[in-house]
Design goal:
- The structure is a single chain.
- Strands 2-1-6-5-4-3 form a six-stranded antiparallel sheet, with helices on both faces.
- It has one domain: PAS domain (Beta-Lactamase, 2-Layer Sandwich), CATH 3.30.450.20.
- The chain has five helices and six strands.
- About 5% of the residues have low confidence.
Amino acid sequence: MAHVELSLSEVFPPSAGAATAPEFDNFGQWCSTVTHADEPCLLIDAETTVVAISAAGCELLGLGKPEDLVGLPLLDGGLRLVDFTAHGVALTEQEVDKIPPLLALSSGRLARGLLRVRAAGEEASDATVDAISTPVLTEGAVAGSLTFFSGV
């Protein structure tokens, strides 16, 4: 099982006169990192739109190609969440609100949990993944969430 560690460190604002292009803000840096990551990970914005997803994340979750998902709402991009019963019934809206990427958005705190994902296609099998999410802040406000996945 993969081991993921997160550490928090103090953020030092750029010194006066330093160049701060918008594409190099905290959220923009995570977008670039997730896009090029070898690990299964996902970055969504505060409106739950997929901003970036790694190729490994798409593969693990059975979602196709990253470029096909960016710009779509997380739950409209093909992510089909089911419960852990034998029949795998779709999660209710109340249950979906508690999945780690969305819980990190609403709570502003770390969130972790297991997800059962059903890939598209008749012969696709369900995948169980461990998800750990952290809110991504911009100017002190939650701007999105970053999630790392590990197959179980």
